[in-house]
């Protein structure tokens, strides 16, 4: 029988199973619910965006964001702008017609930068040595921005630059912060790993920066040093000396180098110090920086080296003295001292001391001074030889002077010296023969004084 109007809507499928007929109203309600959920999620994301960026999302220029490109400008070797892209207009706020023909430094360089510095940068860029650089620039409204410049030089057929194409990209704040943190970390590590003491004081003499070496030497902490002056940290005499040098460096406006003695945990130490004024870009003096190196060990080593050198020199002097005044026993009771070279006051004294000591040591009765190798005999030399003879006579020894040349004999005669304490002979051989004859005749040896 035919089914009634309120019969079951399920109909058999081809394979014999039943399936639901489509319900348009139910599908619409499901789509509305899904769109509502998506709309709620988008609103939540919008709120997150506004909270993060601090501005309504509808102010964000999506088109500019998606199509953003580096700003491009061209400028002549003289620094005059010859092209200015729309991206440059957006980045710096200047219209193209406002900047063409004007100097680069009037548009993008901060006012505080010296013109000489700008021109030097242009010259370096034209040599190709500044292909990429980071620079602080200024916008039309005076805002400072950090930019990355990439420079390409256009040259003519002779290789002469005729234009520079600069692509300029804004450095994001996150990157700037990361760079700044890296620079600060590197600077702190550099200061604290330095073997030298490094510090900065303000114009009132208060320590505003110190490194770890400073703390180690004084055995103090940052809290005990920062904000204090030398008068609060050192004895009055040391503090006054430090302050005088600070004043001299600040007054002169130039570096000052000097050595000083500072009390440390290891006692008084010697330091070599360099101090120089610290200035702001405007030229205003902010304070004074000091770099101090402990040279105590080096000075001690230098003193030891000098002492050793003096010992070596003294040993060499003794060796030369022995060579310059050689004393040789000929036979029992007879000594010979051949002299060579010039005889001055110092050497005359050495001859005297060596000969007298040898006479006593060898119990000698005869000493032969051979001056064959002495070319010049003047009043000083003659008096020295007479003095040696007289001193030897007091010890009971006779002095024979041999090797007298005709010229020396004339000099001695002209000086009218009393030579009765000397026996003069012309050769060393004759002197030795004379001494042997004295020994055979029974000359008495000299006894050691008691």
From TrEMBL:
Keywords, comma-separated and alphabetical: Phosphoprotein
Entry annotated with the keyword Lyase: no
Ranges of biased composition (kind: Basic and acidic residues): 18-28
Domain PAS: 78-110, 183-253
Annotated GO biological process: regulation of DNA-templated transcription
Gene3D superfamilies given in the database record: PAS domain, STAS domain
SUPFAM superfamilies documented for this protein: PYP-like sensor domain (PAS domain) (SSF55785), SpoIIaa-like (SSF52091)
Annotated ranges, domain STAS: 324-435
InterPro entries: Bact_StressResp_Reg, PAS, PAS-like_dom_sf, PAS_4, PAS_fold, STAS_dom, STAS_dom_sf
Segments of this protein annotated with the region Disordered: 1-28
Superkingdom: Bacteria
Record-given protein name: Anti-anti-sigma factor
Origin species: Chondromyces crocatus
């Amino acid at each position: 029988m035919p089914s009634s109007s309120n019969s079951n809507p399920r109909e058999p499928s081809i394979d014999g199973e039943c399936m639901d007929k489509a319900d348009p109203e139910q599908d619409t309600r499901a789509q509305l619910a899904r769109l509502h959920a998506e709309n709620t999620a988008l609103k939540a994301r919008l709120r997150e965006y506004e909270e993060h960026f601090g501005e309504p999302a509808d102010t964000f220029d999506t088109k500019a964001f998606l199509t953003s490109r580096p700003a491009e400008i061209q400028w002549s070797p003289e620094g005059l702008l010859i092209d200015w892209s729309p991206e440059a207009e957006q980045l710096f706020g200047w219209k193209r017609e406002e900047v063409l023909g004007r100097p680069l430094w009037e548009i993008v360089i901060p006012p505080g930068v010296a013109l000489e510095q700008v021109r030097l940068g242009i010259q370096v860029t034209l040599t190709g040595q500044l292909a990429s650089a980071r620079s602080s620039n200024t916008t039309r409204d005076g805002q400072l921005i950090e930019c990355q410049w990439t420079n390409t030089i256009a040259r003519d057929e002779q290789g002469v630059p005729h234009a520079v194409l600069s692509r300029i990209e804004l450095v994001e704040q996150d990157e700037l912060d990361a760079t700044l943190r890296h620079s600060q970390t590197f600077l702190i590590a550099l200061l604290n790993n330095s073997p030298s003491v490094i510090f900065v004081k303000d114009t009132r003499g208060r320590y505003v920066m110190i490194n770890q070496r400073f703390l180690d030497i004084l055995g103090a902490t940052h809290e005990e040093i920062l904000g204090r002056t030398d008068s609060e940290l050192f004895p009055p005499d040391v503090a006054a000396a430090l302050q005088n040098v600070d004043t001299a460096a600040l007054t002169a406006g130039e570096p000052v180098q000097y050595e000083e003695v500072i009390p440390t945990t290891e006692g008084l130490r010697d330091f070599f110090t360099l101090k120089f004024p610290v200035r702001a870009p405007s030229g205003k003096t902010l304070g004074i920086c000091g770099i101090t190196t402990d040279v105590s060990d080096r000075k001690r080593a230098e003193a030891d080296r000098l002492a050793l050198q003096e010992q070596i020199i003294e040993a060499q002097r003794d060796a030369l003295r022995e060579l310059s005044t050689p004393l040789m026993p000929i036979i029992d009771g007879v000594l010979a001292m051949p002299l060579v070279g010039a005889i001055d006051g110092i050497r005359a004294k050495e001859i005297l001391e060596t000969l007298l000591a040898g006479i006593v040591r060898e119990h000698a009765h005869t000493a032969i001074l051979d001056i064959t190798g002495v070319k010049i005999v003047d009043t000083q030399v003659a008096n020295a030889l007479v003095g040696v003879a007289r001193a030897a006579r007091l010890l009971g020894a006779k002095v024979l002077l041999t090797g007298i040349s005709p010229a020396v004999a004339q000099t001695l005669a002209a000086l009218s010296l009393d030579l009765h304490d000397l026996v003069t002979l012309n050769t060393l051989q004759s002197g030795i023969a004379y001494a042997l004859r004295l020994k055979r005749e029974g000359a008495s040896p000299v006894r050691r004084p008691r």
